[in-house]
Every structure is written in C-alpha cells, then in structure tokens.
Amino acid sequence: MTQDELKQAVALAALDYVKHKLTRDSVIGIGTGSTANCFIDALVKYRDEFRGCVSSSEASAERLRRHGIEVFDLNSTGTFDIYVDGADEANPRLELVKGGGAALTREKIVAACAREFVCIADESKWVETLGRFPLPVEVIPMARSHVARELVKLGGDPVYRTGVVTDNGNVILDVHHLHITSPRLLEEKINNITGVVCNGLFALRPADVLLLGRQSGVETLRARD
Ligand code: 5RP
C-alpha cells in the first residue's frame, strides 16, 4: 500500500472506532492535515448522526462546512467526547510531535478539551524516540530571534519556516537535531520561553489511542509506560 492508502485505511478505522460512540448530541474534535482530511471525508456519511465538530484549523473548518457538517466555536461546546487527529511522530507512550501543518496550538487546545484523543497515522510516523521530525514551535513574531537563541541553548537547531503565518497570526520555528528523551520536560521548558505560544510536543497530554496504519493492517495501540 502507498502512504496515501495507509492514511485512508487509518481514517476508515477511526470512523469505525468513533461511529459506535456517536449520539445526536455528539461533538467531534477534528485535527488538521492530510490524514485528518481523509477522516473528514469519511465522516460525511454519518453527518446526520451527530451534532457537529470543533476544528483545530481554518482549513479543516472549511472542509467540514463544504461537506455540510456544522462547525462550533470551542467556547460554546465545553469538553466533548472525542478528538481525531494525525501526527508527525508517535512513540510507544503515544507522545507525539505535531505541527507539520502549523496548526499545533489549536490542535493542543482542542485535544485539551477532549475526553479521548484518537491519533491516526501511517507507519512512517512511528519512532522509538521523538525528534527525527523537526519540532515545530509557534512564536509571537517579534520574539522570533530571542526564542531561536533560547532553543539553541536547549541543543536544537531552529529554522524559521518562511512564508507561513499560523491561524493565530504567529510564525513557526522548526527545531532540528533534537533527541527527545524526556518529552514532558522539554515540552514544559520550551513553553516557558518568553514569546513561545506553544510547541508541537504532545507529551503532557498524549494520545489515548493510536490507530497505526501498517502494511499488515491497522494496529490499535494504547500507551505503554
Ligand atoms: C498539523 C499536524 C498534522 O497532524 C501532522 O502534520 C500530520 O499531517 P499529515 O496527516 O498530513 O501527515 O500536526 O499541524
């Protein structure tokens, strides 16, 4: 199977996982990226069986609306049952690196409000140690150089993602060459740098379930301590 076919397979597996939990009042949190897009497209079939979605990006919100699925403001929904999103990396504790699509801050906010976070990813995203994928950090524009210097002190090699402005009006630094052995600690440290809005480590709030698309089929993984 190609990578795109694996993404389709995990999206369908997520639909299978979610559909049994849906009621007319259900709100589903929706992530961002090509795997999340596969899930959005698959969800259409069930659009009359739940209330609507909250979205982690303008792009996903637009796609949902095009499909006739209502998108709610997170402030009006409160906590909700389930969030489905992709990842750039996942480890055996289901800690993630996210933000390849620059939506990390809203993704983290939506994940924080979900009782269950279902991550969907093809096998290329599976790692023992996070850090192969450059870690995205969303930064207030005027703090970009300051934050970059602080990230160098943490052992990283930050690169400004040129031409990208997040949905929140900020910029992204992609931090290369990190070997992330203590993801929770690093997540906190980076969050404490003045000027950082959010970083792409999802370790303090990891996924609860990972549907991992392998050539041999979709595996359902829960966090291993
Ligand atoms: C966007 C994300 C995505 O979930 C991540 O980049 C994976 O994307 P894709 O499903 O296209 O591989 O974090 O900010």
Quick description:
The chain contains seven helices and 14 strands. By secondary structure, it is an alpha/beta fold.
Topology:
Layout: H1 3-19, E1 27-30, H2 34-43, E2 52-55, H3 58-66, E3 71-72, H4 74-77, E4 80-85, E5 89-90, E6 96-97, H5 104-112, E7 114-122, E8 135-139, H6 144-153, E9 157-160, E10 171-176, H7 183-191, E11 196-199, E12 201-202, E13 209-214, E14 217-222
Parallel strand pairs: 1-2, 1-4, 2-3, 4-7, 7-13
Antiparallel strand pairs: 5-6, 6-12, 8-10, 8-11, 9-10, 13-14
Helix pairs in contact: 1-2
This protein binds ribulose-5-phosphate.
Helical stretch tally: 7
Order of helices and strands: HEHEHEHEEEHEEHEEHEEEE
What is the helix fraction of residues, given as a range?
25-40%
What is the number of strand segments? 14
Fill in the CATH topology of the largest domain. Answer: Rossmann fold
Distance between the termini: 31 Å
Quick one: CATH class of the largest domain? Alpha Beta
Major sheet summary line: 7 strands, mixed
Rg, nearest Å: 17 Å
Based on helices, strands and strand pairing, what is the structural class? Answer: alpha/beta
Strand content: 25-35%
Q: What integer is the average pLDDT?
A: 97
At CATH level 2, the architecture of the largest domain is 3-Layer(aba) Sandwich
> What is the 3D shape?
globular
Q: Which residues form runs of ≥5 with pLDDT under 50?
A: none
The side-by-side strand order for the widest beta sheet comes to 3-2-1-4-7-13-14
* Total separate domains: 2
